[in-house]
Amino acid sequence: MDQSMSAHASLNVSGTAPVLSLRNISKTFGGVKALDNVNFEVLPGEVHCLAGENGSGKSTLIKVITGVHRPETGAEITYNGHTYTHMSPVTAQAEGIQVIWQDLALFPEMTVAENIAFQTVLGRRPRLVSYQKMRDIAIKALSRLGITMDIDKPLRDFPIAQRQIVAIARALHGDAKLVFMDEPTASLTQSETDYLLDIVRMLSASGVAVVFVSHRLAEVLEISDRLTVLRDGKLEGVYPTTDMTQSRITELMTGKTFDNTVRAVQKPNAETVIELQGLSRNGEFNDVTFTVKKGETVGITGLLGAGRTELAQTLFGMRKPASGDIILDGQKVNFANNRQAIDAGIAYLSEDRLSLGLLQPQCIADNLVIASLDSIRNGLFLSERRKRDVVAKWCRDLGVKIGLPEDAISTLSGGNQQKVAIAKWLATKPKLLILDAPTVGVDVGARKGIFDIVARLAQSGLAIILISDEVPEVYFNADRVLHMVNGRVEGCFYPNECSLQEIEAAVYA
């Protein structure tokens, strides 16, 4: 098949009847075309990637398929040989169409068994709950995945990787024939990702079709048979993943080409902003020692459990170290809380944008100024004029695309939300900015924009700690890379003196 086949070419040349076929799918919100005459199909047992930048129409298309949104006149949806002008959520679920959203939509306080089987007790009429039946359903669904876990424990006691498994087991209990996975690996380490991809392969081999949505393009190439690319609500094309490259996918998604180059610059004579001396916290990290200089970006990478986030939160005053020293601008500091850390000039961008980084129901403007209210205060009251000026400045400086400052932050794409989160901390005028997994759930084009911002901030003299479990992110965007293993710094790499493969070999060994 020609790699450059157009959006108007035949979607399927295999001769196999698709399990799902969509024709002429359009959807408009407030005068904006979210989908414009899109065609899409999935074959039985196929792993099919749906790719595109944030705002390209991927989620809208999934919601049309699952009945959340009704497409406009002229749409045709064919599923398992039956044709519909639109789906309803009840029909989609009854027909075995399941979606595992990025936030998983699980219940942390309920047990594993209850999360997997709770749909069995739903209905219009009250009914008695059989917990034994729910346990049997959970055991059967997990065994289909080859998984054993304590089904009687609350879900909150499990890490994100195992919660992802619970979400998949719940989908399988619904007799899934077609499963959509929305950013399933966004919060997983490499080893956990490999395990999840093995499960996807097993589902495919058993005849379940999987539509895989991910901004991690290496995974797309590894797991998918075909690739459908959306751009600005339109079908860009359908392509085999054989011989496809990450750079080619990026070009198709964005219409642009990106050149990954190492940005590392050594600053031996720069002033030290922060120094850690033997910093330890029981069970989390031990004897961590390093410095960050003015204008320097220090990357920290490692597998889940390495202690990276715990270290960052200790620097930000959210956790108390057991021993060791934090020296900021030559003075030892001992923060009682994060407010003291903020006042001292430390800012922390959390890895969890949805629950810790931003207040989703609140407006863009309020989210941006919430950490720096004193700067917009006029006596006892907040100045709306100063607030508008701060919002306008940072949206302009960071290239944040918004409608109105009064719009809810949830109306923005993941990339623009992350820029607002960064702006929130820059408005505090920090000396040190800690970025913890700043590109989780952010598409490839927005990632480039975020790292361009990081580079500009470093050039302006800001000290930066960049934490990521994606080695290429720290390799291409940090001046030094620290490798943490089980709470200790095991290695230090200089990107302009080593290869990406050297760091990856150390991290994934």
TrEMBL record:
Family annotation (SUPFAM superfamilies): P-loop containing nucleoside triphosphate hydrolases (SSF52540)
Domain of life (superkingdom): Bacteria
Database matches in Gene3D superfamilies: P-loop containing nucleotide triphosphate hydrolases (3.40.50.300)
Record keywords: ATP-binding, Cell membrane, Membrane, Nucleotide-binding, Plasmid, Repeat, Sugar transport, Translocase, Transport
Protein's organism: Thalassospira marina
SMART domains linked to this entry: AAA
Pfam families reported for this sequence: ABC_tran
InterPro entries, per database record: AAA+_ATPase, ABC_carbohydrate_import_ATPase, ABC_transporter-like_ATP-bd, ABC_transporter-like_CS, P-loop_NTPase
Annotated ABC transporter domain residues: 20-257, 265-509
Name of the protein in its database record: Lipase
